[in-house]
Amino acid sequence: MSSPTPLQSFLGGLSLPVPVHALMLLNGNVFGISGYVHRATKGSFEALMGVTGLILGGMAVGKLEGAGPLRTDMPLPQVMLSGIFVGLGSKLANGCTSGHMIAGIARFSLRSIVATATFFTTGVITARLLHADLPAVGPADLTLGENGTKFLALQALPFAVAVGLYNFAPDLGKRGKSPSAIKKTDETSPHPESPKVHNITSGNAPHSFLRGLAYLTTSFGFAIALRLSNLTEQIRVVSFLLLPKHKAFDSSLFFLAIGAMPMAAGLYWFARGDESPRLGGKWAIPKRGKVDGKLLAGAAIFGVGWGMAAGPGLVNFGRALSTHTDLIQVGTWLGAVVLGGLLA
User: Fold this and answer.
1) Mean pLDDT over all residues of the chain?
2) Domain that holds residue 193
3) Where does it reside (predicted)?
4) What is the rounded distance in angstroms from the CA atom of residue 22 to the CA atom of residue 307?
5) Which of these, 232, 313, 265, lies nearest to 17 by C-alpha position?
6) Given a cut of 80, is residue 28 above it in pLDDT?
7) Which of 19, 62, 78, 167 is the most exposed place for a label (fewest CB within 10 A)?
8) For position 99, what pLDDT does the model report?
9) Is residue 1 assigned to a domain?
């Protein structure tokens, strides 16, 4: 049984955009979990560091909490099919919930708005078809939870590393246009996680190790914020997709959105700095793209997989490694995501 956690989810929502924005300021890149997975399979060092950070964050959660998150019990073939749909759909749509819903909508991307509406629609339909028998939601928990304070404190570590990288790393980003120049070049509508990016500035030679460290630490911080928000709990996400009139509806993710959306937009539009990416390289802001059939099909397929077995697989995989629980289910789902991406 799921119970709404308004305070935890709101604070987690406030926390999620911070590592997303930090990665943009440090490396000039868009944060996107599915993009990390797809690029890591092709040997990208930076994407691999992002994947590692999310897994390490999950392991830290496991060490703090022990038992795995609340989830729905599904047969393994359904878990595998869900992963394939998520991998295939996110690759076709060039984004998932982190890339489109958090990073993309913050920049008022039409593609991200349409993609989010599409995968929410198919996610709701799928959840109501497969999970309508979930038990009634429990009473709301208005506290920070047993470990909420620890998760808030733990986020200070990756935040401190990001601040240190920005202020004390070798200044590799003096030349080139600032992120504010993005608006002037009419490239403000991003295509999250797309490999086709618009390199706005020539920048300086990037520092590979420090850029990798930025991916690692921001992903770790994102993982901890996900747990604080309770987005790691599969059953809670599915319960949200059942919509308010259903007895099992869990409103936690509504409070997450209230915290995340204004914060993400505020950081992007009002805290973009006046430099090239701090750790060198180029601004890799995705091109303005049109809403096409590939985007709609990918988002729809992703939504089906999301509604079948929602939850961030990399974070939960790290938690499973740490606690030695649910390894088969989470590992199968994650492997299927990789397979789905390769099929796209």
Assistant:
1) 86
2) 6-343
3) Cell inner membrane
4) 30
5) 265
6) yes
7) 167
8) 81
9) no
